[in-house]
Write a structure and sequence with these properties.
With 198 residues, the chain is an alpha/beta fold. The protein has 5 helices and 10 strands, in the order ββαβαβββββαβαβα. An 8-stranded mixed sheet has the order 1-10-9-2-3-7-4-8, sandwiched between helices. A hairpin with a 4-residue loop joins β5 and β6. α1 packs across α2 and α3 (141-151) crosses α4 (167-174).
Length: 198
């Protein structure tokens, strides 16, 4: 199968020139959650501050323990706008090391400059169901759809630097928004491409 040309296989930091500066209205993404992945936050902050249009937003899922390093990485690059929550449906993740059963996942919202349209009221909670049939880290498409619909104008562009199985792209396509994505794993990129072409 031919890969969708809007999907770039490789590290988004090395392929950043595929996206014109100031051209993206919303970055909606789900970076990996392991400790090593925190090194990606600084690259994501640089990428977002270059690629977002003025007033554009970045929303990213992350683990509770990654919050401090994310705030450090984005400091001085984008403005922290709000911290949203994805409330887990079904099973709750057990963090044995901390003695906690996590019922929600943080979603950090950063903006370039100030948010372009504050009259568009959005909820700061979404209730995603567990969706892992295409990728181990897959998120529910309804989360992406909600923020894309509310934070990306109809003529705007959505970008996902950590595409995985293509949840953000699939949601953007269904809503008639233009999109672009990056995925380092060629197999995941193929899965995403097939899903989007359905």
């Amino acid at each position: 199968a031919v890969l969708d040309q809007r999907i770039h296989v490789g590290d988004f930091r090395k392929l950043a020139d595929k996206v014109p500066d100031g051209s993206v209205n919303l970055i909606f993404t789900d970076p990996p959650y392991d400790r090593k992945a925190e090194e990606l936050f600084s690259g994501l902050a640089d990428f977002a501050s270059a690629k977002l249009a003025e007033g554009g937003s970045l929303i990213m899922y992350l683990g509770h323990l990654q919050l401090p390093s994310a705030f450090i990485a984005f400091s001085g690059k984008l403005r922290h706008w709000w911290t949203c929550a994805c409330i887990h449906g079904g099973g709750k993740a057990l963090m044995l090391e901390y003695g906690i059963r996590a019922g929600w996942k943080p979603m950090l919202w950063f903006v370039k400059g100030t948010r372009d349209d504050k009259t568009q009221i959005v909820f700061d909670t979404v209730t995603g169901d567990k969706a892992k049939e295409l990728h181990d880290w897959q998120q529910d498409e309804s989360d992406a759809a909600y923020y894309i619909e509310n934070l990306c104008p109809k003529s705007g562009i959505v970008c996902d630097p950590f595409m995985g199985s293509g949840t953000t792209a699939a949601a953007a396509q269904k809503l008639g928004r233009k999109w672009i994505g990056f995925e380092i794993d060629p197999e995941a990129a193929k899965t995403a491409s097939a899903r989007i072409s359905l």
